């Protein structure tokens, strides 16, 4: 199924009057409304190929219908999203779930939907059918050099697929760790992992980056070998200039101040990528912005401040990606909500009066500093986000149009009610 | 120092045009704007007498200046707040910090500022000069009946003071608990506490309520004898119809779902009062709404839904109070920010389309349910809150006016730069 | 495969001299060593039928070999455990994973291994093949009465199976809850759940109990409808005398004081059952005693104190069960380690000098109270636990004998390397 | 008051027979008992000067009696401890609470008690009487260079005091941080702090070390400028070879794996010092080993393994110190319990069969690895710790002797019942 430009135009026509009024009303109070709209237009969030199907927990998975059955259908799904919001113009592939059979065909298909290939993702946290050695006790940390080599070789393979598709980065998430005291020698696990990462690093093309993702716990429940930003930064620093830390919002201990981590990683020039989702307890992988929207705003506020401070390009110099699990919602609707929440937080962050904030900070005027941040957060920026969509030919209300067009039932009709997309 | 009606009028005149425009713009989209404004007008939050001075931590206290030196000045401070926002029309006293010498004079003074006396607070977590027995090992839980009796008698005293002032409720927060395994027999501590509370309960006037506050930890660091809502509800149920649970936002374990607790306590008819503040780690006692404003909204959403379901009066049937510690901010500015955040959350909760939400819930339409809640939260309701202030003769921007009038420097001039208000 | 008495005798003969020496040395210092040994002999922990296979996380499952392929083989596995330690004399079945085809045959088989049937477990957190209605949005809480009825009927079925096997209790763990704000009306979810539980309760035989298990989060990540002990107690109180709360060690928010919960539930006469495991982050389901052995001891200390206070029988009046997930270890070895840790904690709890502790508590002698508890905990009670095994014909070192006999390779030979037991 | 050698000898005589029996029994099973005893003899834990008085929380402080009124009496108190256990042979001073008036006299006094001067501690988290500039908004992070300079100068002063006393290290704990979003620019706070630390570093004598302590939260409740080990390591790395990270057990987010942090810091050659205490919720500062003794053992296990791996001297190459708050217990008894718990954990760690553990790890034998660790932990090593005391002329049971001698009543007689030691 494809969404037609006319369908969008028709939808927008109905909502346009109200949108115009609201945008104009808001613009009266915001001198830089136009600048913000332009930045929103430019901002793109990659969609991971595994987020297009129903996710689950260890207790079960309640499949929806019409899930994509192969890479082509995954690309089509992201094409639908991008048609609706014009902010999801990239796909992040996961190997081995998405190995392309014909690179050229896949590239062509993606370009038809105006999609580029974002970071490639490797998988050494599961055993694949026919795999020689098991990752039960880790991959890059493994006590057995042969297992480490298998994991390294897999990552090098992933890079090769990525080169063919035009990707420029590799995200390495390692589930490596331990579930019981004594299971691991922490130091040797670190050193094995470092050595493995160095071998992958050596295979990186000149213009590629490698993102070392950290996670506090799960699926290991005692220690994780890349467990926090401090460990990730140690690896990235030892690896070299092409290595960066990747922050996933759900991968922290309770109460962690993620925005401070973001600021410090930017200070060190070592923040590379970002995985959006939301959570209350652990790596809950809920819709971005559904639980802690103020934290999301504060993080974006640091991202904007820190990137601007280094003269970084918001749209290119960090890898932005959603990484969630859609257990209860229609995955495509969930992704539309997530992208919307990200754009709202980004717009709010762009609204922050930086000069006034710096002044308040310099005067230790804590009350004023809070007023400045909360003014930006409390402002209803949805008309700005919608305006960006309007100008790019996206739908004013993507979720509403998705439903009006009956996209899901159409997909079920095309693909069946019992398809199961690869993923978790 | 008093704030003059003319000073407020002048301030409002300058901001009125913009306020009118914004309110009208918002009202275009909100059919029930007027109803909400009226509810905001009626909503009053009590200010605790101990929150008017600088707070501290065990590591130190950095006093500000111009703090109230006695009960009269505390009332005057709340009078200032109420003049500025017309939403702080009650004071919550703490005994022995605020024992009135002349009830009639204090009542008259309060009524001059249009203030009523909210819940009375007892203190059995500190030893007062000349106190016969120590609370080092607890008060109502104490192994020694004489200590328990002292604590009971103190609470009965507090009730007597309250009767004289026109208060109708007693809040009992017990620091009782233990810091080490083995220190307490949990069951006996519970039973001693229950027996003590029953003695206090017996002394309650017919039209009074007693609020049993719970707290997960601090100042005891192993167990607390009224440690969570389950324990508080057990006490309140065993005590009788006049006993209720009081929820303080900062008194939970990490990640607790407070809004669900609120809903269930309302269901049981046992929610009695509410202490507002915000926190990231523990009982941080920060400005309400400064850390987790979405959670605050969700809690208000349950409060509104649950109270309406029982036909409760939003303004009278629960005790609303701020309970924060102002370590870094001017206490009065902090309180103005807190009240503003509370009113914003309340307004957003009133905005929720309940019928649509119920419909979405009945259809398990999770996406739609989220859209409905977030629509209310994302709406910039500040013009509604300001409108309520405008109509009651309060300042359109209380913090701004507080600063323009130089209230704090005036207070320092009147009271001195080194005064220290009673409190923590 | 069966373990022969002679194999055990031979194993014990080799270790007996050392065991005798250690036991006698310890008994010199412990006047009540014999009493404790007898209580250890009597103590039995039920093994859940689903814990005999490899567990997993949502990221994957790394199967071992020789897993039981049916109920008969599960019973055989527990028979092996019981032969090795004589402390695992009960099985807890899970329906629909363990529906017996021939009750009499199953009963006979179990009795051959000297096993009884502990609490029955229902499953309304997954959809079974061919199930009419989905539990995607809950079961007993569901907005649709038909789904609730399906869940109720299933539980009544489970009771019927249990009656045939001689079980006397039903454990209800509900995954019901929500992952997003707004998804549920908490009050209606509670009331629907209560109504459903009441229907199940009505079908309980006179001499049965129902255990209402609570859990803070997972698989739902915003709210859980039986989320904490307070909620469970509310349900159990409203249901009636046959309803109890069940505590699972991994089902709490971070830092919860579980031992206090245990004490209070015993005080209320509402503690019904216990699920053992251990965890660092959430419901990690690790080997009991592998992460927080002191907490396990403190919990047992409350269990012993609280049961003795009510004159309860340690062996019969609470349901004891392991509930863990064996992702990395051989499930049978893991279970042997768990039972050992439970018996150690129980023995330590029995060692506590209750009179001295009460005296220290009455004197607020915190230092002494800690010394008393830690003396019990620091004592090496393994000779007591081993002595209990020796006297019942179990192996002095069950894990060691399990390995010496090559039990796992034997099971793989009999059942194959790729079997997968039903479970998570 | 001093404790006489004869008093100790008499006490030991009474307990010696039992001790000898238990030690011999244990030594039968432990080939390296003698080596362990010798290491226990050599191990010394520094006592902070502020831990000798009653501590408190922000809610109050319940003083005991006989607290030391000056530095001389603090030294005398530690002298008492050291006489009792011969394991507390160092004092860690806090400036300005402990500024010596006569260095030579203080040195002589300390040497009479056989005490050395461990790390010096600075204080820039409180305002001292007469201090020119306030630390309300931080010290080394402060936006105002003059405040930063004041903090730097204070630290240089502290070094000077330390030089006079023979100390060789400076511990810098900064309370710097923020309580509200927006209050700080995280990057500038970091850079200001780094610059300040560099100025202090420049003043360090050649043979000194500086320890950069981190803490997750409190007294600031939103961010801390040296908030976790990653940040501390960044500072220490940028400062140079004399800079190290200091780990305080209570300064982490919930569920943190501290033992892994210890291992990695040792790997990097950047672990400098250790503060012992215990906690359940935050920086509760409870008696070491009173809440999570297994975690303490696991940490010691990593300390021993990691130090041995680098050929470090257990007694000299790390700074060992207790840092607790004695709110409920007699401070001296509490410290005796803490030292005992530390020695027990150290002895258990020395018991671990490293070769077997490495073998189990190399084989991914998780069950065996756990058995090895838990065997060491479950062994009752108290006879080893007591033996070390016996051989050094310390008391076999220090707490018991402390009580038998009536030390506290003697101190109250000498110093009065209402003294208050400097500290928190």
Automatic annotation (TrEMBL), chains A, B, C, D:
Alphabetized GO MF terms: isomerase activity
Keyword hit for Coiled coil: yes
Annotated coiled-coil segments of the chain: 1-28
Keywords carried by this UniProt record: Coiled coil, Isomerase, Manganese, Metal-binding
InterPro entries: L-rhamnose_isomerase, Xyl_isomerase-like_sf
Keyword hit for Oxidoreductase: no
Domain of life: Bacteria
Name used for this protein in its record: Sugar isomerase R00627
Lineage: Bacteria, Pseudomonadati, Bacteroidota, Sphingobacteriia, Sphingobacteriales
């Amino acid at each position: 199924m494809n969404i037609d430009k006319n369908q969008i135009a028709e939808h927008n026509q109905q909502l346009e009057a109200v949108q115009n009024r609201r945008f104009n009303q808001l613009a009266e109070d915001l001198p830089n409304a136009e600048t913000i709209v332009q930045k929103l237009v430019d901002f793109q969030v990659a969609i991971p190929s595994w987020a297009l199907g129903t996710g689950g927990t260890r207790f079960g998975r309640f499949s929806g219908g019409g899930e994509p059955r192969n890479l082509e259908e995954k690309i089509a799904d992201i094409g639908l999203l991008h048609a609706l919001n014009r902010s999801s113009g990239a796909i992040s592939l996961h190997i081995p779930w998405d190995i392309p059979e014909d690179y050229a065909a896949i590239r062509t298909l993606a370009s038809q939907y105006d999609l580029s290939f974002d970071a490639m993702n490797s998988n050494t946290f599961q055993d694949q059918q026919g795999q020689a050695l098991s990752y039960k006790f880790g991959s890059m940390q493994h006590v057995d050099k042969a297992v480490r080599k298998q994991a390294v070789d897999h990552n090098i393979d992933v890079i090769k697929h990525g080169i063919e598709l035009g990707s420029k980065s590799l995200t390495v998430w390692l589930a490596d760790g331990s579930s019981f005291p004594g299971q691991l020698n922490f130091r040797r696990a670190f050193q094995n992992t470092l050595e493995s990462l160095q071998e992958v690093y050596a295979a990186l093309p000149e213009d590629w980056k490698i993102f070392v993702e950290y996670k506090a716990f799960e699926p290991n429940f005692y220690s994780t070998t890349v467990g926090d930003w401090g460990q990730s930064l140690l690896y990235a620093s030892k690896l070299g200039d092409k290595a960066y830390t990747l922050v996933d919002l759900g991968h922290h201990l309770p109460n962690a101040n993620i925005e401070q981590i973001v600021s410090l990683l930017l200070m060190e020039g070592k923040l590379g990528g970002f995985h959006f989702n939301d959570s209350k307890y652990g790596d809950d992988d809920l819709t971005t912005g559904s639980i802690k929207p103020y934290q999301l705003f504060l993080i974006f506020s640091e991202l904007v401040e820190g990137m601007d401070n280094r003269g970084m390009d918001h749209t290119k110099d960090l890898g932005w990606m959603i990484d969630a699990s859609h257990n209860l919602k229609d995955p495509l609707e969930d992704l539309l909500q997530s992208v919307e929440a990200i754009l709202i937080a980004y717009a709010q962050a762009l609204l922050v009066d930086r000069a006034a904030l710096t002044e308040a900070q310099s005067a230790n005027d804590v009350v004023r500093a809070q007023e400045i941040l909360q003014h930006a957060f409390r402002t209803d920026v949805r008309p700005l986000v919608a305006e960006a969509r309007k100008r790019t030919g996206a739908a004013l209300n993507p979720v509403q149009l998705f439903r009006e067009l009956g996209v899901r039932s159409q997909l079920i009709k095309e693909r069946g009610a019992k398809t199961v997309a690869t993923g978790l």
